[in-house]
Specification:
Layout: E1 3-14, E2 21-23, E3 26-28, E4 30-40, E5 45-50, H1 54-68, H2 76-86, H3 95-115, H4 119-122, E6 130-136, H5 146-157, E7 161-165, H6 170-184, E8 189-193, H7 200-210, E9 215-219, H8 227-236, E10 241-243, H9 249-258, E11 264-265, H10 274-288, E12 291-292, H11 300-312, E13 327-331, H12 336-339, E14 352-354, H13 367-373
Parallel strand pairs: 6-7, 6-13, 7-8, 8-9, 9-10, 10-11, 11-12
Antiparallel strand pairs: 1-4, 2-3, 4-5, 6-14
Helix pairs in contact: 1-3, 5-6, 6-7, 7-8, 9-10
């Protein structure tokens, strides 16, 4: 099955000024991603999601087009490996990897449709029919009091747990987790995400303050490539350390694992190198006994790709009784690119998401919505 065409479609949503939200990186008025559409010579279309604006993803996709158009989808990993080997001076990180991530997802969607099987089965096989959702919310806004309403909405959603934004200082972190815990109660887990805003000493102070509130993990306390800091921090940590959303390909994750930097790996399939690379990252993490919880800050297409990935992760080291469910991130921030661009948006029932058994990703785009949100 040969690739006939590859197209990048930039989509964006402008959050109304009075409702902007974000993290320690800043408050943002725009959510934007790049859809990748692949069409094959037998008329099948595959859809992917590259987590970045089309102004950055698009030029890198043009390079990928020169290598992939006219080739067989089954040869995708060989073709990309050769390209990276040719461009070794540029490393194995950044926008080219993000662009390929969306292309890789689109190719696997098309391949699944051609073979009549879901993407999860194309990977490691379907390890589970449903995955457990946790909600990413508790964003910083223009009003700190908004945290209460956000937590009430997450509790009503019925998910297993919540992850909130922290990182503005240890005192602020303690206040925010105390507020979140008071609303979520004791039955839901609570995780925090500092979006890489700390040095190790500040992160330790923050952990001391947050520990009484039973934090499931501390996500991205340090800059992505502060490997020495992560290694040092983990020896002093009072809660699991999670990172990986800003890391690319198995090479980055090998360094995290070799340095004993993390307890939970969080590859983002729309940025780490795609579904094939996420599978390699998972295999490596199993050798180190590290859990994998995929990040899914993306569009509805990217969310569905992360769900298929989570469904394919083999159980390890347990057989039947899972001491902790396989999780997938569900972003509850205002984002119609998650809900409106799919004909059948992702649904959470009883805190879980059932994995589609339809061919490919099991999605169909709402073309009217895609056109409405397309950047022109």
């Amino acid at each position: 099955m040969k690739i006939q065409s590859i197209e990048a479609v930039g989509i964006a949503y402008e959050v109304p000024p009075e409702r902007i939200y974000g993290s320690t990186v800043g408050l943002h008025a725009r959510r934007q991603f790049t859809l990748i559409r692949v069409r094959t010579d037998d008329g099948i279309e595959g859809i992917g999601d590259a987590r970045g604006p089309v102004s950055i993803v698009g030029p890198h996709l043009e390079l990928l087009k020169t290598k992939f158009i006219g080739t067989d989808i089954d040869d995708r990993e060989v073709i990309f490996a050769r390209l990276l080997n040719q461009l070794y001076h540029f490393g194995r990180q950044g926008a080219l990897i993000v662009a390929y991530s969306g292309l890789n997802i689109a190719m696997l969607d098309a391949l699944g449709k051609a073979r009549g099987v879901p993407v999860s089965r194309l990977m490691s096989g379907s390890a589970r029919r449903e995955v457990t959702a946790y909600a990413t919310g508790g964003h910083f806004t223009q009003r700190e009091s908004d945290l209460v309403g956000q937590m009430e909405g997450i509790k009503a959603l019925g998910v297993a747990g919540a992850k909130i934004k922290t990182g503005r200082g240890p005192e602020s972190d303690e206040i925010r987790v105390k507020t979140a815990r008071s609303i979520l109660g004791d039955d839901m887990f609570l995780a925090v995400d500092a979006n890489a805003n700390y040095t190790a000493d500040i992160a330790v102070d923050s952990m001391r303050r947050m520990a009484p509130y039973r934090i499931a993990w501390f996500e991205e306390p340090l800059r992505p490539h502060d490997y020495r800091g992560y290694s040092h921090l983990r020896t002093r940590a009072m809660m699991p350390i999670a990172t990986g959303e800003a890391h690319h390909m198995v090479f980055d994750f090998r360094r995290l694992l070799d340095g004993e930097c993390l307890d939970i790996a969080q590859p983002a399939v729309c940025a780490c190198g795609g579904l094939d690379e996420a599978r390699r990252i998972t295999d490596l993490c199993r050798l180190f006994g590290v859990r994998v919880v995929p990040a899914a800050w993306s569009s509805g297409v990217g969310l569905m790709a992360a769900i298929h990935f989570a469904a394919s992760i083999p159980p390890y080291p347990h057989a039947e009784s899972e001491p902790a469910p396989q999780l997938v991130e569900y972003d509850v921030g205002e984002n119609p690119l998650r809900d409106e661009i799919l004909q059948e948006p992702v649904k959470i029932v009883g805190g879980k998401i059932t994995v589609s058994d339809k061919p490919g990703l099991g999605i169909a785009l709402n073309e009217d919505a895609v056109r409405f949100y397309t950047i022109r």
